[in-house]
Amino acid sequence: MDKHSDKVTLTNGYWFYFRDENRQFAIHGSGYSGKESVYLNDQLISSLRNYRRHSQHQFNVAQDNYRVEFNVTSILKGEIVCSLYKNEQLLETETKAYTQDTTSTSLKKIGLFFIGGIITGALAGLIAAKLFG
Asked: What keywords are assigned to this protein (predicted)?
């Protein structure tokens, strides 16, 4: 199975890898289109578009019932938890995030952008008033 980058980016999205016996699962969540894909041994077995905070894919392989769940746990950090279940038993869970910032760091960044927007707007207003006023 060709491993994609473990680093989460907008272009690469989120890739999760799980193994169960001789079965290799590669699970992809797009960073911007909402498309989710589940591959088993390099074959696409489930795909859907999702814009909600929770989704799941269910499929059968031989006598086994599998379920993959996506849960968005932090919109600010772009954090997604992906879990693989087999016959209703949790096999493995992996968490990835677009940014590793803490919530307080993210809020500080948002605050700085907000203040920067106010300053930029005020300066643009002053310049427009002098030019056209």
From this structure: Membrane, Transmembrane, Transmembrane helix
Which sequence spans correspond to the domains of the chain?
14-100, 102-133
Tell me the CATH class for 14-100.
mainly beta
Beta strands (DSSP E) in the chain are 14-20, 23-29, 35-40, 43-49, 54-61, 64-74, 79-86, 89-97
What does the pLDDT profile of the chain (133 residues) look like in tens digits? 445 666 777 778 999 999 999 999 999 999 888 999 999 999 999 999 998 999 999 999 999 999 999 999 988 788 999 999 999 999 999 999 887 656 676 677 778 888 888 999 999 899 988 888 7
